[in-house]
Target: Glutathione s-transferase
Amino acid sequence: MSDIKVTYFNGRGLGEVIRYLLKYGNIDFEDIRIEQDNWPGLKDSTPFGQLPLYEENGKVTGQSVAIARYIAKKVNLAGDDEWQNLEIDAIADTITDLRLKLYPLYSESDAEKKATLKQALLLETIPYYFGRFDKYISKNNGYLAANKLSWADVYFAIALDLFNVFLEINVLEKYESLSTLKKKVEELPGIKEWIASRPETPF
Amino acid sequence: MSDIKVTYFNGRGLGEVIRYLLKYGNIDFEDIRIEQDNWPGLKDSTPFGQLPLYEENGKVTGQSVAIARYIAKKVNLAGDDEWQNLEIDAIADTITDLRLKLYPLYSESDAEKKATLKQALLLETIPYYFGRFDKYISKNNGYLAANKLSWADVYFAIALDLFNVFLEINVLEKYESLSTLKKKVEELPGIKEWIASRPETPF
Model:
């Protein structure tokens, strides 16, 4: 039995970045998936009512991005120095900023308001961020930060997958550099095999 | 002239955690403050249309939490090992989660809706998070993580200050451990002198 446990819902979502990084590093872990029906009974026992959780040697913590950064250091996807780590962290937090801008679309039930939100995302927010990410990729040798593959790229590939699901279109169609980076991550050893074998879920 | 520049609006906000950490570490920096009138002309030149910015040796990055983590390593307010860094990062991201839950209050213009949002924050959200932060402080020797003073505590003190401004009451009245931690941060060498001498701004 592995001493590392990753607990998340039965989906990709915010748990998948942790799974990708562990698979990339060939680190064995228990992939615990909570069905929605069982979540209300478990929610209160988590640190702040959220998943994913990461457990190692009996110690548990939440927060997907913090966990991703921690695992990245084990699997050699962190920066080579502290400035590189800052660049990687800043891009990761910017990906989170963009991710959070998509959430109102998910929680809006009024069809007309939802359509308006979606238009704003597709015509303003996404082009603004993607245009800037494209420039970072040009400047960083095909990656988002620090001139090399880092955990920010892995987080980005996961986030782009979620954006496609949320927006119900391929948001990457017009952004070749982003699309290429996503594919590069999905072809990485460990991650490629995981994608081929993981449980199929809608998101 | 200092080779470190911190650029933010003329206020505390998300720039203040960077200023606190630099002051604590006795690191000289140029405290550049952008007036709202000048912001539209500058916005497009920033990495993602946001402040604060941090500049060191001519290199610039955004994202306040990423910058705080970077400076924390210089001033010895990071963890002693990677698990401690994970604990500190997870608490910092949880502080951000709570901070973002307060933003709708700021952007809501309808007085009735604003009052409803405020009640939910004061009666549900804040007690939920503060009750759990209180348990972390009990378990961690009076600090939020890693049994010692860290940059998460500094970020927390700043966030609590913002919560008081947003909610127009002292949110800490019922939470002695949180109040004590905030005071402890505000009494730290460098930070104490900064608070006494910094420009006075509403938030």
